Amino acid sequence: MTENHIPQRYATNPAQIPGMTTAELRDTYLIDDVFVPGEIRLTYTHHDRVVLGGAVPAGEILHLGGYPEIRSEYFLEHRELGVVNVGDTGIVAADGESFELEKGACLYLGRGVEAISFADAQGSAGAQFYLFSAPAHTSYPTVLVRPGEGTVRELGDQLTSNRRTLNQYIHENGVKSCQIVMGVTQLHPGSMWNTMPAHTHDRRTECYLYFDVPEDARVVHLMGEREETRHLIVADRQAIISPSWSLHSGVGTAAYSFVWAMAGENQTFDDMDAAPITNLK
């Protein structure tokens, strides 16, 4: 077992929100160092025991091993993993089989896959793999989904600035998993809002990785309870942990994309409780 460790974020409850400063909110729910060149950088949250993070080969081959915090000889001994590449084309090797992931592609690795590594594709040096893992109690086959090959849903309206393309990759009617639901949403030019109305789903923790955010732009991520909302200012390639009790919505100062991923009680994408903007405070 490797001596590397995974920093931990402990579970929180709604009663803590009113007393939190901006710095405390960011320390609790924002991950601002997801992608570090030459490293696999992970964070363990006790909300549904999700592990999320990034792998940036930067010309090297990075191996995903076991960690003391998950008490496993290898990472997927008791877990499953969704991988989305948000950088240049890269290669993921899983138990001797290699998969080429272009930007926006998603790879599912099920429980029991032992040897996992990440590398840049030949002629490329900019792959950035986003990792989302949850405990798994059964095994499903490894599946690669290329951009546009999943379930594609066109949502929103340009008149309300939330026209967006939602790509569902790992879900109950797509790539099979034990717990993970995962996909990518891209806002159309001129659209900045997602998702409206805001919503909660007490049955699942959801995490977001915002990417393709222009350098001089930010996303305002709304969180908290309906009558006690807060916000986080998020830059490109930063991630948010959204507890099951927290609503979530966001607006950018420019169009952006994000990887959404969930784990918890069920895999029903539309199992959500709406929080109309007229009810928020």
From TrEMBL:
The UniProt entry's GO biological process terms, in alphabetical order, are: D-galacturonate catabolic process; D-glucuronate catabolic process; pectin catabolic process
Its EC number is 5.3.1.17
Residues the entry annotates as binding Zn(2+): H199, H201, E206, H248
Provide the alphabetized UniProt keywords. Answer: Isomerase, Metal-binding, Zinc
Q: How is the cofactor bound?
A: Binds 1 zinc ion per subunit.
Cofactor(s), names only, from the UniProt record: Zn(2+)
Question: What pathway does this protein act in?
Answer: Glycan metabolism; pectin degradation; 2-dehydro-3-deoxy-D-gluconate from pectin: step 4/5
State the Gene Ontology terms under molecular function.
4-deoxy-L-threo-5-hexosulose-uronate ketol-isomerase activity; zinc ion binding
InterPro entries, per database record: KduI, KduI/IolB_isomerase, KduI_N, RmlC-like_jellyroll, RmlC_Cupin_sf
| A Pfam family of this chain | KduI
What chemistry does it catalyse, as a reaction equation?
5-dehydro-4-deoxy-D-glucuronate = 3-deoxy-D-glycero-2,5-hexodiulosonate
Question: Could you say which protein family the record assigns here?
Answer: Belongs to the KduI family.
- Cross-referenced PANTHER family: 4-DEOXY-L-THREO-5-HEXOSULOSE-URONATE KETOL-ISOMERASE (PTHR38461)
Q: What does this protein do?
A: Catalyzes the isomerization of 5-dehydro-4-deoxy-D-glucuronate to 3-deoxy-D-glycero-2,5-hexodiulosonate.
Protein's UniProt name: 4-deoxy-L-threo-5-hexosulose-uronate ketol-isomerase
Please name the gene that encodes this protein.
kduI
